[in-house]
Amino acid sequence: MKLKGVRGAPDLLPHESARWQRVEAATRSLLQRYGYAEIRTPAFERTELFVRGIGEGTDIVEKEMYTFTDQGEVSLTLRPEGTAPVVRAYLEHQMAAQSPLVKVYYLGPMFRRERPQSGRFRQFHQIGVEAIGSDQPAVDAEVIDLLWALMVEGFGIPDLQLRLNSIGDAACRPTIRDRLSRYMADRSSELCRDCQGRLTRNPLRIMDCKQEGCQRLVAEAPKPLESLCGACAAHFAEVRGLLDLLKIPYIIDERLVRGLEYYTKTAFEMINPRLGAQNALAGGGRYDGLIESMGGPSTPAMGFAVGLERVIASLPPALEEGVLHGVYVATLGQEAQRTGMGLLQELRRRGVRGLMDLEARSLKGQMRQANKERVRYCLIVGDEELRRGQATLRDMVKAEQTAVALDRIIECLMGLEGV
Ligand code: HAM
After folding, report:
1. In this predicted structure, what is the pLDDT of residue 418?
2. Cβ neighbours of residue 142 under 8 Å, at least 6 residues apart?
3. Are 251 and 373 found together in one domain?
4. Contact 257/224 with Cβ under 8 angstroms?
5. Which residues bind L-histidine (predicted)?
6. Count of domains in the chain?
7. Tens of pLDDT along 65-99?
């Protein structure tokens, strides 16, 4: 029997990896500009961390975690998200002592046992950003500005929608929940099966149910924004004002609630309307109560995570993908091959992308390979030419050939555009 990979856990194949690397490089460069440093936490944690952090009433904790018992003792879980692990590390390493506002990012695989479909995987990758230690609306604005810059400037994704809401804090959330529960309880027979369950466990989640009947009810239901306390309303007004100032376009979406329980105040999602059902490219918000609920001191925080698979699926064909670069050394004859190898080593040591045939192809086959590899130049070395101390340099863009003296070849190539 042939062994197969696990459903929902795709391989990243060599022809796809350049795009991923470009996205990762753009991420690192931009995050460094905003003053974020990388943190790497393990792929698994104690199960309790996610149960307490994400919340027992969430889909993730109820049915999507990959949990196993280690050595028959400790229950461990593959991380379904990165915020709870970062908070764990923040507390464990007393990072607050280093700086009152800790700004970190991470990039790596997450695991959720969801039903695989287009844009939804069981192993997927996130770029996450967490700013821990300040309750200032300026942090919300800076974090959202960063997300916008990542998507637009860093990745070049067109047609984005930033959806924004406030879902209150410890002071007003009970009122928000109560008003919604009461409204929905009176109409519970019209709710879908899942939402009937949510009514007691997590009524806010009814807000983003996709079922038509539930949506009809939600349209008329009391919204979180209507019941915000004074402090939350003022915070939200200030965040909006700052986003206006920074010229970040957003849509207020009163139905937006998040799938994790730790959120307070600002909540947001970045949508690509062209992606179909799984169209959220990123999601995040404030989580002012999470650190305290994990046993730390009361500490406000804010962050987001971007789904990399969905970002990659949204990318326009990159300009560089059409650009030819590097050198292919084509050789004819044994002596020429030895000379070619030496030249190639020298070019690579100087930072040039250099390739040659290692499969004894004919010259025609080598030229075909050079085209396939999208090199800008082809250096053709034959035993005959070698005796004359020459080689032929072909510019693949201009389709021009020139004879070059072998002892000047490196110098000559290094001065050319597109090498
Ligand atoms: P989340 O909304 O659960 O938030 O995930 C963030 C993003 O990860 C989603 O918008 C989506 O692009 C991607 N994503 C989630 N699940 C899948 C999946 N099964 N397949 C493919 N992509 C997926 C969080 O994880 C929070 N920790 C974000 C955060 C950080 N909030 C504050 N700080």
Report:
1. 87
2. 34, 131
3. no
4. yes
5. 81-83, 112, 126, 130, 258, 262-263
6. 2
7. 999 999 888 999 999 999 999 999 999 999 999 99
Per-residue confidence (pLDDT) for residue 91, from 0 to 100: 98
Q: Determine which residue's CA is closest to atom 11 belonging to ligand 1.
A: 307
Asked if residues 132 and 291 have their Cβ atoms less than 8 Å apart, the reply is yes
* Contact indicator for 173, 278 with CB cutoff of 8 Å: no
- pLDDT of the residue at 319: 57
C-alpha of residue 307 to centroid of ligand 1, in Å: 6
Binding site for L-histidine, by residue number, is 81-83, 112, 126, 130, 258, 262-263
What value does the mean pLDDT take over residues 60-64?
95
Q: How far apart are CA 202 and CA 257, in angstroms?
A: 11
Indicate whether 5 belongs to any domain: no
Q: Kindly give the distance from the C-alpha atom of residue 283 to the centroid of ligand 1, in angstroms, as a whole number.
A: 6
Evaluate: CB of 163 within 6 angstroms of ligand 1.
no
- Closest Cα to atom 1 of ligand 1: 283
Q: Give the Cα separation of 292 and 28 in Å (integer).
A: 30
175 CB-contact burial (10 Å; exposed 0-12 / middle 13-18 / buried 19+): middle
CA of 344 to the centre of ligand 1 (A): 44
Same domain, 262 and 350: no
Is pLDDT of 45 > 70?
Answer: yes
Give residues with Cβ within 8 angstroms of 416, minimum separation 6. Answer: 376, 377
